[in-house]
Amino acid sequence: MNVFKNIVIVGSTGAIGSAFIQLMRETHSEAMIHCIARSNPNPSGGNITNYTLDLYDEELLEKTAQSISESAPIDLVLVATGILHEDGMMPEKSLKEITADKLIKLFTVNSVIPILCAKHFTPYMNKESSIFAALTARVGSISDNKLGGWYSYRASKSALNMLIKTCAIEIQRTLKNTPIIAIHPGTVSSKLSEPFNQHLDPSHVFDPQTSAQHVWDIIRKTQPSDTGKVFAWDGSEINP
Ligand SMILES: NC(=O)c1ccc[n+]([C@@H]2O[C@H](COP(=O)([O-])OP(=O)(O)OC[C@H]3O[C@@H](n4cnc5c(N)ncnc54)[C@H](OP(=O)(O)O)[C@@H]3O)[C@@H](O)[C@H]2O)c1
Predict the structure, then answer these.
(1) How much distance in Å is there from the Cα of 182 to the middle of ligand 1?
(2) Is residue 31 part of a domain?
(3) Pfam families from the entry (predicted)?
(4) For 199-217, what is the mean pLDDT?
(5) Which of 21, 36, 58, 83 most suits a substitution to test ligand 1, by most atoms within 8 Å of the C-beta?
(6) Is residue 131 lining ligand 1, measured as CB closer than 6 Å?
């Protein structure tokens, strides 16, 4: 069974990222918890260390990964960054609304950040047993796309799923006990989902704490043979 003593959460300021940190604080009081975000309002203290960094700065990512692993190899990396809308830039309802800027922005956040984290953190992960997980979205599934729309978000999450799968194949050769997975956290109340949740039945929207618990349940049950998979919040597998 995995022992989680050295934990990294990227996107620690987000609704799900911060709820996951809180859950780790409550359940893993002995663990070192490293929280990474582009801006960190909270000071470090106790078993929590905060890092503020530009997540596209590979030199900084590398230095941070190295420094986090100095006292112990990393047991868990959860990447909880992501974007759906920003500054009036909303998901596309039709082809006419696509812009290069929107596509590039969503790919750089949703696809590039998680795979850069995989590149720089996996070399420092625990060879005995560890796990790398990134939050994706069910709408990134090509076979599940029945409604259309949301071009940039869907495509950036499909790309993320492919990057995770490709990384899993490579990492399996050297880190046999480190599954690389993607997790759909469900529909969760957060800044990201806020404009779209109003028409939903509230019973279908998780609070961040419930979602963090689901994410944790998947992480702790994941086996090395699961590497490359995309899981939904309830543990079911999502087809690419
Ligand atoms: N909420 C949902 O219903 C839902 C559903 C399916 C999938 N997901 C996925 O779950 C993940 C977390 O979502 P959430 O609901 O917790 O969203 P959230 O509360 O909006 O948090 C998003 C996180 O991403 C970070 N981020 C955004 N743009 C960034 C950038 N350019 N550089 C660095 N960090 C950036 C934010 O940092 P700042 O705090 O600095 O902005 C924040 O830490 C995302 O990948 C999302 O796609 C969410």
Answers:
(1) 14
(2) yes
(3) adh_short
(4) 94
(5) 83
(6) no
Decide if 39 is inside a domain: yes
Taking the C-alpha atoms of residue 135 and residue 65, their distance in angstroms, rounded to an integer, is 19
pLDDT band at 44 (very low <50, low <70, confident <90, very high): confident
Measure the CA–CA gap between 210 and 3, rounded to whole angstroms.
22
Domain that holds residue 149: 6-232
| Cα–Cα distance for residue pair 6/4, rounded to 1 Å | 6
Q: How many angstroms separate the CA atoms of 71 and 67, rounded?
A: 8
The amino acid at residue 140 is G
Is 17 touching ligand 1 by the criterion CB < 6 Å? Answer: yes
Task: List strand residue ranges (DSSP E) for the chain, in order.
Answer: 6-10, 32-37, 48-52, 76-79, 131-135, 180-184, 230-232
- The tokens describing 166, both together, are 């490709």
State residue 19's pLDDT score.
97
The number of residues making up the chain comes to 240
Give how many domains the chain has, as a whole number.
1
- For the segment 16-39, what is each residue's pLDDT rounded down to a tens digit? 999 999 999 999 999 999 999 999
